[in-house]
């Protein structure tokens, strides 16, 4: 989506991640936008507070709309002051940003081949989905298959490769404890979303069985959504998503809160170029961000990829597993508007797979 600073000729871009309710998000964006047309876009905090603090607040639909609008406002503000957004948030805390690459898919198979491709391209850190569907109590054959995949990576690359393993909320507490413990000897970089955040008490149970860093946060939004996680003391890495958590400044606030608890951050960003560019702005000024997810070539992208939508593709050029600090004003993006219009005309209504367990009960995806 685009937002214009009327009278100044400045446009800003934001990205709204629709999840499985594209039409709902589009309708909601028009409804919410009516409340800010004609406002001063530089008053970002004031506008954010007014959009957020309604009687029925939060939720993935409302927060993805607010997040997209907020990104666009920051893009305008950066362009207005002719500075990257991070310069308006305190300035740089680093020289470069470490990134990791996805391998495998929803049903991971030849992970060694995929990992070798990433290593050849200079990455030393990857992430993979751990498992397919798992019932509350399931076969140890599935556990063994996960362990074998991770073991094959460790056997091939030794400790030179950092391996993140994403449980994706697919694993219930009984099996999560087992799987986490079985993976620990292979020294994962982190275990992500070992249980769903709505079962956050399960993080405590898993943490009793392993010393591997535990990560979560991609489904949470605002500072208030992260309070219990931070106070629990069992999560080592938070993964807020700028396109859901409330936008650039709110995500920066969440990561700063985590720093006070000595917790690292690895922001979630598997979507398009605007949300990734916004996330990089946060990374630059956040010292506890240790690595960044990026979606180039990710298995979820079908038919087009992150670079297809930007003209200045060099902004996402990775060198030896790092990306340079952005230097252009605002988000630093030159969007290919023709490509955006072309893809939007197709009508993108994505839904996640509907997985079933062996007995026909609904499985988490």
From TrEMBL:
<dbReference type="Pfam" id="PF02746">
    <property type="entry name" value="MR_MLE_N"/>
</dbReference>
<keyword id="KW-0479">Metal-binding</keyword>
<dbReference type="InterPro" id="IPR029017">
    <property type="entry name" value="Enolase-like_N"/>
</dbReference>
<protein>
    <submittedName>
        <fullName>Galactonate dehydratase</fullName>
        <ecNumber>4.2.1.6</ecNumber>
    </submittedName>
</protein>
<dbReference type="GO" id="GO:0008869">
    <property type="term" value="F:galactonate dehydratase activity"/>
</dbReference>
<dbReference type="Pfam" id="PF13378">
    <property type="entry name" value="MR_MLE_C"/>
</dbReference>
<dbReference type="InterPro" id="IPR036849">
    <property type="entry name" value="Enolase-like_C_sf"/>
</dbReference>
<feature type="domain" description="Mandelate racemase/muconate lactonizing enzyme C-terminal">
    <location>
        <begin position="108"/>
        <end position="213"/>
    </location>
</feature>
<keyword id="KW-0456">Lyase</keyword>
<dbReference type="InterPro" id="IPR034593">
    <property type="entry name" value="DgoD-like"/>
</dbReference>
<dbReference type="InterPro" id="IPR013341">
    <property type="entry name" value="Mandelate_racemase_N_dom"/>
</dbReference>
<dbReference type="InterPro" id="IPR029065">
    <property type="entry name" value="Enolase_C-like"/>
</dbReference>
<dbReference type="InterPro" id="IPR013342">
    <property type="entry name" value="Mandelate_racemase_C"/>
</dbReference>
């Amino acid at each position: 989506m685009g937002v214009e600073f009327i009278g100044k000729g400045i446009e800003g871009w934001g990205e709204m991640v629709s999840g499985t309710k594209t039409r709902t998000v589009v309708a909601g964006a028009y409804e919410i936008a009516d409340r800010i047309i004609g406002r001063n876009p530089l008053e970002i905090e004031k506008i954010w507070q007014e959009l957020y603090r309604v009687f029925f607040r939060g939720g993935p639909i409302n927060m993805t709309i607010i997040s997209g609008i907020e990104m666009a406002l920051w893009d305008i503000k950066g362009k207005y002051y002719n500075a990257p957004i991070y310069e308006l948030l305190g300035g740089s805390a680093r020289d470069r940003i470490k990134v990791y690459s996805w391998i495998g898919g929803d049903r991971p198979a030849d992970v060694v081949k995929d990992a070798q491709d990433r290593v050849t391209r200079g990455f030393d850190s990857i992430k993979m989905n751990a498992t397919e569907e798992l019932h509350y109590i399931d076969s140890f054959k599935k556990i063994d298959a996960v362990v074998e995949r991770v073991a094959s990576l460790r056997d091939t690359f030794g400790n030179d490769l950092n391996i993140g393993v994403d449980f994706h909320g697919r694993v219930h507490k009984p099996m999560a404890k087992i799987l986490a413990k079985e993976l620990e000897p292979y020294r994962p970089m982190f275990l992500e979303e070992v249980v769903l955040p709505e079962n956050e008490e399960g993080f405590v149970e898993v943490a009793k069985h392993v010393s591997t860093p535990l990560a979560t946060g991609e489904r949470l939004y605002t500072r208030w959504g992260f309070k219990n996680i931070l106070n629990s003391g069992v999560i080592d890495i938070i993964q807020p998503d700028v396109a859901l958590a409330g936008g650039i400044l709110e995500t920066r606030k969440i990561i700063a809160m985590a720093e006070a608890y000595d917790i690292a951050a690895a922001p979630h960003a598997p979507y398009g170029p605007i949300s990734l560019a916004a996330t990089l702005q946060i990374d630059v000024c956040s010292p506890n961000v240790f690595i960044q997810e990026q979606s180039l070539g990710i298995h979820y992208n079908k038919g087009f990829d992150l670079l297809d939508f930007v003209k200045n593709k060099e902004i996402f050029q990775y060198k030896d597993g790092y990306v340079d600090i952005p230097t252009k004003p605002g988000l630093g993006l030159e969007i290919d508007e023709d490509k955006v219009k072309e893809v939007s005309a197709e009508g993108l209504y994505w839904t996640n797979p509907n997985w079933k367990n062996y007995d026909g009960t609904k499985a988490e995806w």
